Amino acid sequence: MSGRKQYREVKNLSQTQIEKEILAYWKENDVFAKSISSREGKPQYVFYEGPPSANGLPGIHHVLARGLKDIFCRFKTLQGYQVKRKGGWDTHGLPVELQVEKMLGITKKDIGTKVSVAEYNERCREEVMKFKDVWDDLTIKMGYWVDLEHPYITFKNEYIETIWWILKEFYQKGYLYKGLKIQPYSPAAGTGLSSHELNLPGCYRDVKDTSCVAQFKVSPQSTDHSSPLKELQKEGGADNIYFLAWTTTPWTLPSNTALAVGKNIDYSLVETFNPYTHQQVRLILAKELLGKYFQEENENKDFSSYQNDGKNLPYKILASFKGKEFEGMRYEQLLPFEANKKENIDGDAFRVVLGDFVTTSDGTGIVHIAPSFGADDMKVAAENGIGTLTLVDKEGKFIDGVGEFSGRYVKDYKDDPNYVSVDIDICVKLKQENKAFKIEKYEHSYPHCWRTDKPVIYYPLDSWFIKVTAAKERMMELNKTINWKPESTGSGRFGQWLENLVDWNLSRSRYWGTPLNIWRTEDGAEEICIGSIEELNNEIQKSIDAGLLDKNKFNIQHSSFNIDLHKPYVDEIILVSPLGKPMRRESDLIDVWFDSGAMPYAQWHFPFENKETFEKSFPADFIAEGVDQTRGWFYTLHAIAVLLFDSVAYKNVVSNGLVLDKNGNKMSKRLGNAVDPFTTIEKYGADITRWYLISNSQPWDNLKFDIEGLAESGRKLFGTLYNTYNFFAIYANIDGFTIDKNNSIPIEERSEIDRWIISKLNNLIKEVTEAYEDYEPTKAARAVEDFVIEHLSNWFVRLSRRRFWGNELSKDKKAAFETLHECLNVVAQLMSPVAPFFSDWLYQNLNGTKESIHLSYLAIADLNLTDAELEQRMEWAQEISSLVLSLRKKTKIKVRQPLQKILIPAIDKHFIQQIDQVKELILSEVNVKEIEYISDTAGIISKKVKPNFKLLGKKLGGKMKAATEVIQELNNEQIAQLEQNGSLELILDGETFNILLEEVEIISDDIQGWLVASNSGITVALDITISDQLRDEGFAREIVNKVQTERKESNFEVTDKIVLHVQNQLVLNNVLNRYKEYICNETLASDILFSGDISNGKDFDINGEVLNLFIQKV
RNA sequence: AGUCCUAUAGCUCAGUUGGUUAGAGCACUGCUCUGAUAAGGCAGGGGUCGGCAGUUCAAGUCUGCCUGGGACUACCA
User: Fold this and answer.
1) Are A328 and A223 in contact (CB under 8 A)?
2) What is d(CA A881, CA A45) in angstroms, rounded to the nearest whole number?
3) Does the model's pTM come out above 0.90?
4) CA(A1044)–C1'(B41) in Å?
């Protein structure tokens, strides 16, 4: 063939090569920027990029998460929306700090001494962008389109300024407050721990602690008239009645200030012995928990039988009470010391209070309350006006005035080899003093400091909070308007979280982060919240004027940005209060999650700049991150938006699951099962990786990543598509066909199979568009895959091949080209969000253009071109073909052997009409001459009846089972009757029922004397008589096949002409002569030459006959 | 400990409002087709639908409990 090739032909598919080409093309033509600028003025689709942190390397799960983001942004662009995507970097926070500390070989304590804060933060600033290039590289190579050139960076002054503005808004609305909260605290590290730190893997550990059931003695003075124990105290003396309370932290017992009981819990007063002192005692504990401490057979046993061995305690239930009866009762302090004298405690301590958190699942049903060391304790004590006792200092040791325990560490915080457990010593003391009822080791899960490995304690710390609880209802309400994918994450996980909302603790005592913008006088009486740099500069000026700041150092021009808003510089700024007192900045930094949650505003430096841009891009239409962000970014975005603007921050959110290894284990560097995204992309290509990640399982399900699956995706979808395109290109080039949309053959004039695939294609457009719009990328990808492999390649192209082979560009051939082109073109569009490289390559090749597919507009489904009947009959054609092929297989008659006819039982005229329209396709597919429809008039068709369970089940109810049996055994006569009358009477258990024709399905499943196959209600019989003529035709086809195979093996071009040299053969000479024209046509032979002896021939087996043949290229 | 997700063939996954032979792809075996195919077709083996109860004429599907896997949350004394 001569002439320029219109369509590019490629010998071997190399996905990575394609991607390199396309990447270069995108870069050269600035296609990403164009995909935005070309949509100027169009409706916006707003996407927020959740900022990654560049201090670690990206993993394969980032390809999933970012691929997911990319899909919907590209899809919306295809639909004509303008989709701006600003990249971003999360730069503050603990991970960076730790990395720097490790690098410098220091700990937190050394900051400010061995290393200055300024230097430390400078290192953080560098370190946090350490892998930015690697991230950018991945972003580019995986084809994730996001603006890398103008990202928002959370450590920038502009970013911080917006955060300050938000905080000031909150401050002015009264949402910002300082309070004492019980927080996880690591005495060994000397620092409070964030919940994030507490949830680092391995922090919660099962440990064995000494647990203690302590006896709190009911105060003898508590004999007032209201006491429920009044009568008993009188009888047995008021001296030996105790509340039993259990704790796993005996060191908190000296700090006890109250006991809590459950209002509706049943309690018993039990008389028994103390197992250590063997004194007779009377104890109060939850009735339900008696079994934990006593054996039932010892109830009411003679007290004199007690062996003073602490075993088999005899006991007697004296009385029962409800918890609420105890409210307000007093008890004697368990461990009185100098430091915890009652006078030192605010409020009315050592009382019984009610607590709704009290349960009977553990302990005694009575909870020891140490307000300083437990959040619930603090809360319930505060509600009852009972103060705190903090007998432990920040180093984790008892303060002075706690007797023999003073100065001792409550846990072994110093790795002291001679450390003696305070818990045990306290228990021993209690035992001796008849104050302990049961001491034992108890295994439970307890948090540990991730850095020191030491147990965390809960400790009262000063903190700044955002009062998110004030907007709790509104947050829940607005959450209901958000479209969550999957839904359960929104209603379940996120919804539950909102229901149990507590105020957001903003404070972090770290160094590298956004400083809290509040300055206070030392006594806390005056304070100011700074909301902008301008305001700060004004205040600095006042302070300079007041002589508190050195004007040479702080003489700053208004609205200039030359102060670094980080520590230590902000802390050098001392402001002046209205009363003229110095105000210093509260030393805390804020939670880094606030940084990322503020990105909708801070990325635009709102409200200082870009007001309009911000307004157009809030709230987001779409965000996506891992499900682990539910309580992270998803929450902080939502909380800030609701508090600030009474709005959602995003309308649609997709939370993806984890990427696990092929065995379902979490990927980690430590286990060595992590998959490197670069290696994967290098080997298989980004498209195949993306396609696999999306099509293999729903993004919100966890994905078991198996490299074998990638290979399969590549082979199946991409291989098939590539071959389909190449097939098109080869023949289009041979015929010099060029697509011309203005001069194409109208669809209605195209052949049955063309109209069928066009119908399928339009339904596909509809389905895929809806799936993307519904944020169901997996459905979209699978639908495309199914269309390409099953319908386009395996049916349309396979059955249409012959149409592409003729000599000239006939009308039908042109239609075939146009149809195939259309299908490939649309498929490229539909797959382009997931596979942006290959689709662009395909699209450009198909259209002979240099215009990217990502600038094109998505085809819209034309439902006028869909035809359900056509699709139905094609399905039947496929079904019938499949049945015939299965019959051939049974009889071992190969497909190349033509057969005379197939029989199909059919009464329904519509069915016959339908099949007639696809008859030619069936006949050529199965190599049979004709189809004969037979009715049952001859009585050779046997039928079966299957009940329609849905209809009959409702009608018959309990009789359904019996009816099924009767119906399935109906004889031909009865069936005929049913068909004629439209109904039939059945007798079930003596009752008569009328079943209707539409309530059953009648299937013809056998034709007497024929070989039949049936499925899905269609039955086919095959005539297997091979006449002489059919046999000869079979020879001819066999010869053609052998010649074609030989041509192929000899590497002839598809268009090469040949001459066949044949050695005379008794049987086949006839065949060759009779079918000469057919054989020559098929094999592009100009002639068949016979001779008695050909020297260079080769023997071929033609259905048992040997043919010596030589193929000569001419 | 709580909340949520999840369990279907050796592997990866479908399975609509409950309706009767539980499907597909991969892998395996045999046969077959092919001038686009690292393909396709036909057939075969392979399932107690995690377990136990319950609702129902009917349960992979609905309900409860239990078990395994996972995520998140957590001071349960």
Assistant:
1) no
2) 48
3) no
4) 20
